[in-house]
Specification:
Helix content: 25-40%
Low-confidence stretches: none
Structural class: alpha/beta
Number of strands: 7
Bound molecules: 5-O-phosphono-beta-D-ribofuranosylamine
Number of helices: 6
Mean pLDDT: 96
Strand order of the largest sheet: 3-2-1-4-5-6-7
C-alpha cells in the first residue's frame, strides 16, 4: 500500500482550513497526512489547533532572517527532514519565493476567497463586495511567484444577491472547508494514476 501523501500546511491565522483538512484526513475523505504546520505568526490560533490535533508545528519570525531566501532555505531543510511532499497554503500571508518554488515545483497549492482572476491579494471578500460583484466564491490554485496567479485547480461560486459581509464570509468559509480537501484528493488521485 502506498504511504499517505505527506503534507505541510502553512497558515498565519485562525487555521479553520487547517482544521477542515485535518478532519478530512481523519475521516477518510483526504488520503493524506499533515505532518507539519508552519506559521510565520507565533501567536496564530492555528498553533493551538495543531497542538490539539497532535500535529507538529513550527513557527518562525521572518524578521529573524536576513532575507526570504534565508528563511525559505531553513524551511526547506525542515520540510525535507519531515518528508513533506506537498505544501498546502491556508491563509499564509506571504508570497512564496524562488527557494520554496524550486524545491516544491508544481507541489504548492493555495486557497483564495474569490473567483480568481478577480480580486487577488488581501481582503478578497471586501474587494468583491466593494466592487458590487455579482458572484463571490473560492479558488484552489497552484502557487507561482505571483500574487494568486497560479494555474486554477478548482472554483466554486454563488450569487452575492445583496447579502451582508458576515453571510458572504460564512458561505465562503463553508465552501472552502469542503472544496479544499475535495480538490486535493482529486489532485493526488490524478498524480497517482499518471
Ligand atoms: C481563508 O479565507 C483563505 O481562503 C485565505 O485566508 C483565509 C484563512 O482562513 N487564503 P483560516 O485561517 O483557514 O480560517
Amino acid at each position: 500500500m502506498k504511504n499517505r501523501t505527506k503534507l505541510a500546511v502553512f497558515a498565519s491565522g485562525n487555521g479553520s482550513n487547517f482544521q477542515a483538512l485535518y478532519d478530512a484526513t481523519q475521516d477518510g475523505r483526504l488520503d493524506a497526512e499533515i505532518v507539519l504546520v508552519i506559521t510565520d505568526k507565533p501567536s496564530a490560533f492555528v498553533l493551538e489547533r495543531a497542538k490539539q490535533a497532535e500535529v507538529s508545528a513550527f513557527s518562525f519570525n521572518p524578521r529573524d532572517y536576513e532575507s526570504k531566501q534565508a528563511y525559505e532555505s531553513m524551511l526547506v531543510e525542515k520540510l525535507e527532514e519531515a518528508g513533506v511532499e506537498w505544501l498546502v497554503l491556508a491563509g499564509f500571508m506571504r508570497l512564496i519565493g524562488p527557494v520554496l518554488l524550486t524545491a516544491y515545483e508544481n507541489r504548492i497549492v493555495n486557497i483564495h476567497p474569490s473567483v480568481l482572476p478577480a480580486f487577488p491579494g488581501k481582503d478578497a471578500i471586501g474587494q468583491t463586495l466593494a466592487a458590487g460583484a455579482e458572484m463571490a466564491g473560492v479558488t484552489v490554485h497552484f502557487v507561482d511567484e505571483g500574487m494568486d496567479t497560479g494555474m486554477i485547480i478548482a472554483q466554486r461560486s454563488f450569487p452575492v444577491n445583496g447579502q451582508n459581509r458576515e453571510t458572504v464570509e460564512r458561505k465562503i468559509h463553508d465552501i472552502e472547508h469542503q472544496l479544499y480537501p475535495e480538490s486535493l484528493q482529486q489532485l493526488f488521485n490524478r498524480q497517482q494514476s499518471v
